[in-house]
């Protein structure tokens, strides 16, 4: 596995591989890898000849009161996991390489980013799309794979690639869950004891909405109330539970394409999750916790 830290070297590696006729797959991450990330690598390997995985904790997407300094990091472990999974190139730039000067020009994500996660974390998606745009220019992939757990982010990345003519394919993979239903996240490492058990309220709330919909309920307000009832458990502070379409717009009537998106704090940890009703939580990937 090649390991590169310079954007110039990364771009040169990709161009050399593409000159040999090889298709480049890309998995951008902030590190502290888990099985969810590694499933994205597997998906990229199925559809590309070479896979690049990046690790960069992007300061632009963290607000002033968020956990940038505390965000979990373990580069040595990440190297091992990436190599074991068959990553061809690990791109690990530092902040000065990605932002050698103050980044005055940023991507404006538009009105789709003003709701839900965007409302809860002002400026977050401008930071996400700015770094994703930079990474796309540096890596120059043919394919980039994202996880559906960050549904609003994946939707915005698709629009970024389409609206700005990046000329690459965006592939969004199903959420990966532990066997008890908890969606995998690097922030799960913060969950200890009672908080870990309380965090299951998010997937239970999604299942409650799904079951009510499969029983014939199609009113989004009734389904939202059903989900909130399941979410309101000790140790959990709900932020939102919404039923939206594929463009993050509220729906007047629920169907199989409707997405239930959810955010809550469990103790001091903020978690998000979602389900596409027609696919259901059971349609996600389940793995045994490592």
* Stretches with pLDDT under 50, minimum 5 residues: none
Which quaternary structure do these chains form? single chain
For the residues shown, what is the average pLDDT? Answer: 96
Beta-strand content bin: 15-25%
Backbone CA Rg: 19 Å
Q: Biggest β-sheet: count, sense, barrel?
A: 6 strands, parallel
Order of helices and strands: EHEHEHEHHHEHEEHHHEEEE
Given the structure, what is the number of helices?
10
Structural account:
By secondary structure, the chain is α/β, with parallel strands linked by helices. It has helices at 7-19, 35-47, 75-84, 95-98, 117-120, 124-139, 151-163, 194-198, 200-214, 220-231, and strands spanning 2-4, 24-29, 50-55, 89-91, 143-147, 169-173, 176-178, 236-244, 259-266, 269-276, 285-287. The chain starts with a strand and ends with a strand. The model has no long low-confidence stretch (mean pLDDT 96).
Brief sketch in words of this structure:
The chain is α/β, with parallel strands linked by helices.
Key features of this structure:
single chain; 290 residues; alpha/beta; six-stranded parallel beta sheet; three-stranded antiparallel beta sheet; 10 helices; 11 strands; 36% helix; 20% strand; globular
């Amino acid at each position: 596995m090649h390991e590169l830290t310079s954007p110039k070297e990364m771009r040169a590696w990709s161009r050399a591989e593409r000159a040999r006729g090889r298709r480049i797959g890309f998995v951008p991450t902030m590190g502290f890898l888990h099985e969810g990330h590694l499933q994205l690598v597997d998906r990229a390997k199925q559809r590309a000849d070479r896979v690049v995985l990046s690790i960069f904790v992007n300061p632009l997407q963290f607000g002033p009161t968020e956990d940038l300094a505390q965000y979990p990091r373990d580069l040595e472990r990440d190297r091992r996991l990436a190599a074991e999974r068959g990553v061809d190139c690990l791109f690990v730039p530092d902040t000065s390489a990605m932002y050698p000067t103050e980044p005055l020009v940023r991507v404006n994500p538009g009105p789709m980013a003003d709701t839900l996660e965007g409302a809860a974390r002002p400026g977050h998606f401008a930071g996400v799309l700015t770094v994703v745009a930079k990474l796309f220019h540096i890596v120059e992939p043919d394919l980039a794979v994202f996880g559906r757990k960050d549904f609003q982010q994946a939707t915005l990345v698709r629009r970024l690639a389409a609206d700005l003519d990046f000329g690459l394919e965006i592939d969004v993979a199903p959420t990966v869950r532990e066997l008890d239903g908890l969606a995998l996240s690097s922030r799960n490492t913060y969950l200890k004891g009672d908080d870990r058990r309380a965090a299951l309220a998010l997937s239970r709330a999604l299942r409650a909405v799904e079951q009510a919909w499969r029983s014939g309920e199609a009113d989004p307000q009734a389904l939202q109330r059903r989900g909130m009832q399941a979410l309101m458990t000790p140790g959990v502070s709900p932020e939102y539970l919404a039923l939206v379409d594929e463009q993050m717009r509220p729906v007047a009537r629920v169907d199989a394409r409707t997405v239930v998106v959810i955010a809550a704090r469990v103790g001091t940890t903020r978690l998000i999750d979602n389900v596409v009703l027609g696919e259901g939580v059971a349609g996600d990937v389940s793995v045994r916790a490592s």
